[in-house]
Specification:
9 helices
Length: 458
């Protein structure tokens, strides 16, 4: 079994030099040389005799978890460990992209200091030296642009004995996992289904009812409400009041929106990482990060307008989240989006999943293969309005070699043909990296010109 503490290299060298000086002084009869060795040997022996006997313990967890286990608040002078740029999680009350955690360090008696290092994605982020007397809790703040399940950080710690004479063995890195929920962004006008089939909502439909815009003016018939009588039209058309005229309105309706995320691809802006041998940078949002953020933004906008929103995943065989409304539905969608990730071998679907009648389908994909495009075309042929959202990140090509540029060009040509085929099949296209608010507002205005379409969401 390895000893928890070992001699420091600097102190061991100093002690060795001191012994050599002592022997040389004794051999040549030089007392002054022997006296020079006394501080070196004495400091080494003093440090080794005070070597701590136990290991350093490190625990990483949420603020409440660490405080509950220690039954004591964090030190008032605790040092902030800032993880720098990286990808982590945000608590509900923190600003988006920020995760606050705590590092609890337990050191045995005699420990002079502890070196604490923070790593993310196998890259060193920060390192501090702190004094620990028994136990100390340090706040850890990590910033992120990534979403989904991930490791908050890896904490390494090494203890330093008195005078640096001894150092502890590296402890097992402390880690903590977190689920980063996507954060919605503001949007303007949004497209609606070609025909609104809901019985309540905020959008004017093309069927008779109440609450919407004017449909027509019609002679009074049994069953019409008296408050619907238009006296001006009646006075103009029937001055003797032999016939009454009533105003008929259009009904208000809600839209059914289904968000479909293609989780089979999770690629970064560097094409060299697409093969899987290299990992994307922690500071680069991937295509799945963009898809989560886009889907969350659209879900919030539609739900705020009183529509029903559901969620499905083309990359997994599981029951989809059925369309629903309200704040709880947004929370369900955000949580389900955060859990979406590539699951093994990409799934091949023979046919597209079944959808509610008259739904607006929004597909989020990189469209690097035919699976998502084929599903979108099948839904459009079934009569749904389909919007394809391209979530491919802006690519970095300056770092590519000639053959890598050639391979990327071939992929782009096939992808361009695929997107052109979608537009030929009357699937509307939005590129999320290029001002999606403008493109969505344009689709909202174009949808209003179709017969039976509702008004745009404001």
């Amino acid at each position: 079994m390895n000893e928890p503490w070992s001699r420091g290299q600097t102190t061991a060298v100093g002690a060795t030099v001191g012994v050599v000086l002592l022997l040389v002084g004794a051999a040549v009869g030089r007392a002054d040389v022997a006296v020079l060795a006394v501080p070196l040997v004495g400091a080494a022996v003093w440090g080794w005799l005070r070597t701590p006997s136990r290991e350093i313990e490190v625990h990483l967890g949420a603020s409440d978890d660490v405080d509950d286990e220690t039954n004591a608040p964090a030190d008032e002078g605790a040092t902030d460990l800032d993880g720098g740029e990286g990808a982590t999680t945000a608590a509900a009350d923190d600003e988006p992209g920020t995760l606050r955690s705590r590092v609890r360090i337990t050191a045995p008696r005699g420990t002079a200091a502890v070196v604490v290092a923070v790593r993310r994605s196998n890259r060193s982020q920060d390192e501090v030296v702190v004094q620990v007397r028994g136990q100390r809790t340090l706040p850890l703040v990590v910033h992120t642009v990534r979403t989904g399940p991930q490791t908050v950080a890896e904490i390494d710690a090494i203890g330093i004995g008195p005078g640096g004479a001894t150092v502890s063995q590296p402890v097992e890195p402390a880690t903590d996992d977190a689920l980063v929920l996507p954060t919605p962004g503001p949007l303007g006008q949004l497209p609606l289904p070609f025909r609104l089939r809901g019985l309540s909502g905020a959008h004017p439909s093309r069927r008779p009812g109440e609450g919407g815009g004017l449909r027509d003016v019609h002679p009074y018939t049994p069953g019409d409400r008296l408050r619907r009588i238009d006296w001006r039209v009646t006075a103009r058309r029937s001055p003797t009041l032999q016939e009454l005229y009533v105003r008929r309105e259009l009904a208000l309706a809600e839209a059914a929106v289904l968000l479909v995320v293609d989780s089979r691809d999770d690629i970064g802006p560097d094409p060299r990482t697409w093969r899987g041998s290299l990992r994307p940078r922690a500071s680069d949002p991937t295509s799945l990060d963009l898809a989560r953020q886009a889907a969350t933004s659209l879900a919030q906008a539609y739900l705020a307008a009183g529509d029903r929103v559901g969620l499905d995943d083309l990359g997994a065989v599981r029951r989809p989240l059925p369309p629903g409304g309200g704040r709880r539905q947004l929370d369900r969608i955000r949580h389900a989006l955060a859990l979406t990730r590539p699951e093994g071998e990409p799934l091949h679907r023979v046919r597209a999943p079944q959808l509610p009648s008259g739904a607006l389908v929004i597909v989020f994909s990189t469209f690097l293969d035919d699976a998502a495009a084929d599903a979108a075309v099948q839904w459009r042929r079934a009569g749904h309005r389909v919007v394809a959202v391209d979530v491919l990140p802006t690519l970095r090509e300056a770092v590519l070699r000639d053959r890598e540029r050639l391979a990327l060009r071939l992929v782009r040509l096939a992808r361009t043909d695929r997107l052109a085929g979608l537009q030929d099949a009357d699937v509307e296209l939005v590129t999320w990296r290029d001002a999606p608010q403008v493109a969505l507002a344009g689709l909202a205005r174009s949808g209003q010109r179709r017969p039976g379409a509702g008004a745009g969401v404001r």
